[in-house]
């Protein structure tokens, strides 16, 4: 005859078993050993590639900056200063006064701009091109001075600081574009000269 399983389970008590001493410690040791054997994926090749990219970038930039140094006469741009109230230079705030990191950024861009200006080679063929770019640089310089005045009047705000850094960056990019245009112009003239001689 069949018995009802519900009746059997009513009186059933599960036997109480105790784990042996040190069971938990052995389990943790075994778990650590198993997990320790699995190797994490190695990203060493990514690190090496990143370091290589940084070194190549620095080398290229250094070559561009230092490899093209020639004795040239610097071009001095006439910059009109906007007529505004004169602020005492000792009380004037600059990016470098706000933060050492901003000073590094300002110095980097200013040095790059001065280096590019000093390396320009002006002649009759490229004078008009250089004058156009220098006029745009003068406009950016006036804008930079206006932003600097705002920095001193209103105080440092994120928008003003960003605009100042963007202005410096734009001036340097503009000079790089000018250098590329001058190189293209020189290459075109050289090709025309070679064609004439042939």
Stretches where pLDDT is under 50 for at least 5 consecutive residues are 82-87
In helices, the fraction of residues equals: 55-70%
SSE class: mainly alpha
Alpha carbon gap, first and last residue: 117 Å
Mean pLDDT across every amino acid position? 78
Summed up, the helix count is 7
**Total strand segments:** 0
Q: For the CA atoms, what is the radius of gyration?
A: 35 Å
Portion in strands: under 5%
Please provide the ordered H/E string of secondary-structure elements.
Answer: HHHHHHH
Shape: elongated
Largest sheet: none
Transmembrane segments: 44-63
Keywords: Coiled coil, Membrane, Transmembrane, Transmembrane helix
Coiled coil: 130-195
Layout: helices, strands, pairs:
Layout lengths: L4 H6 L12 H15 L6 H23 L28 H4 L1 H19 L8 H28 L3 H40 L1
Task: Characterise this structure.
- Keywords: Coiled coil, Membrane, Transmembrane, Transmembrane helix.
- Residues 130-195 form a coiled coil.
- By secondary structure, the chain is mainly alpha-helical.
- It has a domain at 89-197.
- It is 68% helix and 0% strand.
- It contains seven helices and no strands.
- It has helices at residues 5-10, 23-37, 44-66, 95-98, 100-118, 127-154, 158-197.
- Helix 6 packs antiparallel against helix 7 (158-197).
- It starts with a helix and ends with a helix.
